[in-house]
């Protein structure tokens, strides 16, 4: 089966994010990491690929930087990567991003596209759905379990009250939640191999896609703050302070 | 008067709280048409009217997953009658339909809005960023505008509106095979729903292990509270995704939020910082959660919570 997994390089979430003056766009350093939630999609792709004797292609959009994040995903075992990096795509909105990714995916061909449910840095949370519409295939979203055969895919779809079992024919797009599978850690061999794996960087024009968007950040203002209240060290009696507050708030 | 469409999902046979929250905003912006995914019983329609809907289009996608057919139908209708704004919630099915609809209409989409205002040529929205410490205001041009608002951004409140007119929204064949729902499971849940609970007890990595989450569960039971979790322990597989509170999980606004072993990453704070009272227990005196806590206990959750449970049990 031909699998495409969408991944994103993001600024390390452990470092404070910064915005560019004027545009409000996120400043993206050369050192970016693989979005942690994408590891689940990569693992899912690798497992299905293994079971169906398939291939896993990573597709990504954004500044290449030192491509450390993409290498992380390749080191897990993906076969190759396609990365679209164009300065005109800076500050791209969800629709523009989806159009670019869909064009890159179509160029590759696919049976199944796997994505996360939302990125950690932008978290618009609509990209898998946009991709499926652009690719004109079903979208099976928020998967907590995935089973794919040669012709069809069946998932457990997270709902507000439990889950639904959802099925469709292939080709299709599946978005997976964190925890759907246990992502593997790259082995030393995987890390070495990743350095030799192909990373294609098609030009935006070759994809027949263009930048464009209708959104701009007009202001960044401090939010009304919520101050810290009382702080106590536990001396073995701290639970009494909690109980007093719960009584005061009429919880008990 | 501006034409506002609002997507509302029925849950447990009635309009969802999130949908009613959206209506509170929508009716202040213009004349409201609700696209209702659920059973169109008289009581639900009356509720939608009381919350400001003048017209309801009801949709039933049968066993098809709603996103494809509903987006297709709405795109057709929006091209005919050009609404100014189509408002969704930041929720599973809302996101599915909104994403497809934006592609069909070739318009942008704004996610995670906490407020929305109409402008001359589009909309302006507010978004909490950096754990809710800053607000980004974004302008989007083009019509219709598609906006997804975060839960708990608006206060649901009936205003005594009349019964709306009700029509069925015909769902077309999309011309491709659609995903089908073959089974639905409702998970057994003890206590109130996370998004609606008056009290939430939440656990983070500071608990140390998946087993220790039972401290959170026991405390929650005693307080008739819902249980929540940080993304870290959801990713670690300790608890299911449905319990995740934060940017990529649920937004909660309980009267009291008790954070046990939660460090208070930005990702988490944005989902709970609007709670009435926040109580935090954490070993690390520098944990960011203390900057929003009304009562911060610097201590070991494994010592403080068992004592708290014991004291509550003996009451």
Radius of gyration of chain B: 21 Å
Main beta-sheet annotation of chain A: 9 strands, mixed
The percentage helix of chain A is: 25-40%
Oligomeric nature of the chains:
heterodimer
Number of strands of chain B: 17
- Annotation field: number of helices of chain A: 6
Which terms would index this structure?
heterodimer; A: alpha/beta; two-stranded antiparallel sheet; globular; B: alpha/beta; 8 helices
Describe the overall structure:
The complex is a heterodimer of chains A (252) and B (315). Helix content of chain A is 26%, strand content 29%. Chain A is of the alpha/beta class and 252 residues long. In chain A, strands 9-8-7-10-6-1-4-5-11 form a nine-stranded mixed β-sheet, sandwiched between helices. A two-stranded antiparallel sheet of chain A has the order 2-3. In chain A, helix 2 crosses helix 5 and helix 3 crosses helix 4. Chain A starts with a strand and ends with a helix. In chain B, helix 3 packs across helix 4.
Task: Set out the fold topology.
The complex is a heterodimer of chains A (252) and B (315).
Chain A: E1 2-6, E2 9-11, E3 32-34, H1 38-52, E4 55-61, H2 68-76, E5 80-84, H3 94-108, E6 112-116, H4 127-135, E7 139-148, E8 152-158, E9 162-169, E10 172-176, H5 188-194, E11 199-200, E12 215-222, E13 230-233, H6 238-248
Chain B: E1 3-11, E2 14-15, H1 17-29, E3 31-37, H2 42-50, E4 53-59, H3 67-81, E5 85-89, H4 92-105, E6 109-113, E7 115-119, E8 122-129, E9 134-141, E10 145-149, E11 165-168, E12 180-186, E13 199-203, H5 213-222, E14 226-229, H6 231-235, E15 256-260, H7 266-272, E16 277-282, E17 295-298, H8 301-313
Parallel strand pairs in B: 1-3, 1-5, 3-4, 4-11, 5-10, 6-10, 13-14, 13-15, 15-16, 16-17
Antiparallel strand pairs in B: 1-2, 7-8, 8-9
Helix pairs in contact in B: 3-4, 5-8
Summarize the structure.
With 252 residues, chain A is an alpha/beta fold. Chain A contains 6 helices and 13 strands. In chain A, β8 (152-158) and β9 form a beta hairpin.
